[in-house]
Amino acid sequence: MLVKCDPLRPDPDVVKRAAEVLRRGGVVAAPTETVYGLFAHAYSEAGCRKVFQVKRRPMDNPLIVHVDSVEMAETVAYIPPELRDILRRVWPGPITVVVKSRGVLPRCVTAGLDTVAVRAPAHPIPLAIIRELGAPIAGPSANRAGRPSPTTAEHVLEDLGDEVDLIVDGGPTFFGVESTIVDVTRTPPVLLRPGPFTVEELEKFFGRVEVPPVARGLAEADVALAPGMKYRHYAPETPLVIVHFDLEEAVKWLEARGLRVAVLCVGECPKAKRTIPLGGDLYEAAKNLYDALRQLDKLGVDIGVVPAVEERGIGLAIMNRLRKASGHREARRPEDLAAIVK
Ligand code: TXA
Ligand code: MG
């Protein structure tokens, strides 16, 4: 069941209905400022299990607990006083902190870990649902496991269809990539996943933050820093390659070998048969990225190419997602393409 809802002034009837579904142990898909989430009442064991089931998510990959305030976060986690002050300034927003759990939620929410990931989303719809419920909601992104995260209600429908009890369609999400995850149980804090809350901004609040290679998408973690890191994510069916040199040259090289190519481009698109424009700047590119990856699979081409972007600001999150989507295929020179398409 899908219902429309104004993202900025959520319809109270829709909010009440969503809370009712959650109270009964159902699951609700709703937008956040980052991507759509698939939510359950965080205290409902049945609801949380259903999230894993519907998404086909391995049970050892924990959920994020969404709260409306630092006070609510303190009901599920231990928040040290210095962190409390920081969270009061950065929440609501696209930043998830991994902290010590109080162990009050069903085990499956945290996959049995003694830590819990919490965030207050900066989106009126989930905030209103949490307030109506008077309790946190737990959930991952509302895509089928292994698919790009959903940034529209249509994406949720495409992946999960009628297995979701209620889909709240609040239009496209604002940022388009998942929240920044930072493990603040370590000193210095460790970036587990880059997102819209940039490292540059994080460091203003936390001082030095460690950025391990896995957070840049450069490696798959053997020993997972975040449990989710060991799973393949955001993988389109069509091979994708990140290009560090002139895009037009890359397209020519590939087409000369008889390959049908689609180009995901930022800013001006090169002359090519099939282009998927990502937008004029990196914020637009982040917002359109997952839809572009879904489009790529529908074009029926042999390969997609996408330009590398600078790993600064939101560019770090974009490169992390692109590296995962491309299965780490990166070409620094035309000759590198030979090894990739062989
Ligand atoms: O923006 C977002 O983060 C969206 C919206 C819906 O809030 N959520 C999201 O969740 O994208 P997703 O699908 O990435 O799943 C939660 C992530 C996983 O990567 C998981 O490994 C990590 O959070 N996580 C959860 N609990 C954790 C913990 N205790 N320690 C480390 N990582 C944890
Ligand atoms: Mg996800």
Automatic annotation (TrEMBL):
EC number of this enzyme = 2.7.7.87
GO terms in the biological process aspect are: regulation of translational fidelity; tRNA processing
**What are the residue boundaries of the YrdC-like domain, all occurrences included?**
12-197
InterPro entries per the record?
A: DHBP_synth_RibB-like_a/b_dom, Sua5-like_dom, Sua5/YwlC_C, Sua5_C, T(6)A37_SUA5, TC-AMP_synthase_SUA5
- Gene3D superfamilies in the record, alphabetically? DHBP synthase, Threonylcarbamoyl-AMP synthase, C-terminal domain
* Gene Ontology MF annotations: ATP binding; double-stranded RNA binding; L-threonylcarbamoyladenylate synthase; tRNA binding
Task: Give the residues the record marks as binding ATP.
Answer: 57, 61, 115, 141, 149, 193, 234
- SUPFAM superfamilies hit by this protein: YrdC/RibB
User: Which terms in the GO cellular component ontology are assigned?
Assistant: cytoplasm
Q: Could you tell me what reaction this enzyme catalyses?
A: L-threonine + hydrogencarbonate + ATP = L-threonylcarbamoyladenylate + diphosphate + H2O
Lineage, top-rank taxon, reads Archaea
Grouped into one coarse class, the protein's main location is: cytoplasm
Q: Read off the Pfam families from this record.
A: Sua5_C, Sua5_yciO_yrdC
Tell me the keywords, alphabetical order: ATP-binding, Cytoplasm, Nucleotide-binding, Nucleotidyltransferase, Transferase, tRNA processing
Which residues bind L-threonine per the record? 34, 66, 119, 179
- According to its UniProt record, where is this protein located? Cytoplasm
Family stated for the protein in its record: Belongs to the SUA5 family.
Function according to Swiss-Prot or TrEMBL: Required for the formation of a threonylcarbamoyl group on adenosine at position 37 (t(6)A37) in tRNAs that read codons beginning with adenine.
Protein's name in the database: Threonylcarbamoyl-AMP synthase
